Known about the structure:
This protein has helices at residues 6-11, 16-31, 35-39, 41-48, 50-63, 70-99, 114-122, 126-136, 139-143, 145-148, 155-161, 171-190, 192-199, 202-214, 220-250, 256-260, 271-278, 283-318, 330-333. It is mainly alpha-helical and 339 residues long. The two termini are 27 Å apart.
Amino acid sequence: MAQIPIKRTIERVPGGMMIVPLLIGSLVATFLPDMPKFFGSFTNALFTGSLPILAVFYVCMGASIDIKATPYLLKKGGVLFGTKVGTAIVIGVIMGHFLGEQPITSGIFAGLSTLAVVAAMNDTNGGLYMALMGQYGRSEDVGAYSVMSLESGPFLTMVTLGVAGLAAFPWPTLVGAILPLLLGMLLGNLDREMRDFLAKAVPVMIPFFALALGASLDLHKVWQAGLLGIGLGLAVVVLTGIPLYFADRVSGGTGVAGVAAANTAGNAAAVPALVAAANPVYTDAANSATLLVAACVVVTAVLSPILTASVAKRYKARHADTPVNDEPVKVAAEREVVR
Length: 339
C-alpha cells in the first residue's frame, strides 16, 4: 500500500506537531462547535480532554527529569517568572500613569485598558510552554513551569494594578498543578526503566494535547476583537518575548525557553472579571478586556509555536555540533527539530 508522508509534511510546518492539530481543533470549535458533543464518548473526550492529557504529559515529562537538576529548575523557572511578571509590571505602571483604571473610549484603540494589557502579559500558557519545550528544549526546562505556575490567577495582576486584597494564594490549586510532575520525577529517578518507558510518550502526547487546546479556541473571538485584539497578541509576543529571550540566554539557556513563554494562558481571560469583582473601579474595563485577552490566547497560541520553532532551528544551525537541548535525554533523540 502506498504511503502518504503525513508526519513528514506536518513537520515541514514550523512547530507543526503543535500548530497543525491546534488549528484543526480551533476550526472545529469555530465552525462545528457541537460536533464533539454530537458524537460523544471518546470523540468528545478527544476534543475536550486537554487537562487529563496535560496531566499525563506532566507525569511522563517529569519521569525524564533528573532530580539532580532541581537547582536548575528553580533557576530557570525563577528567571522566566521574574522576567515575565517584571515586564508586565513595567508596562502596567507606564500605561496606568496615562490611562488609569478606565479603558480608552474612542478611536482605533477603543476598549484597550491597562487591565487588558497586564492580564494578557502576566500569565504564561503552561500547557503550550511545556509542549513546546518538550519538543524543542531540555526536559528540565519543562519542569521550570512548576515555578512559573505562580503566575496563574488574578493575584499578580491585582498586585500589578495596585489592588489591595486577595492576598491569599490558592495553594491547593498550585500544588495540584505540580504533583503530576513530581510523581513522574519520583518514578523516573527511582527506576531508570520507568524513566525510559514514560519518557517515550512525551512526543506522542503533543499533537493530542494541541488538538484539545485548539478545540477550546473559537476563532470568532479574534474577529470580534478585531485588529486591536490581534495587535495586543502581537504585543504580548514581542514585548515579553524579547526580554524573556535575553533573560534565558543570560541565565545559560538557548533563548528557546524564553520565547516559548511569550504567550497568554487560556485562564487569563477570566482575570479581568475577577479583578473587577474585587475592585468595582475596573468594571468598565473588564468586558472589553476579557474579549481582548481571549483574542490574545488565540493569537499567541498560533504565533508562539512558530517563533519558538524558528529560534530553535536558528540556534541549531549556529551550533551544528550542539543539540538545541544541550543536555539531551533519550526523548529528544527520538524527535526531529523542525526542518
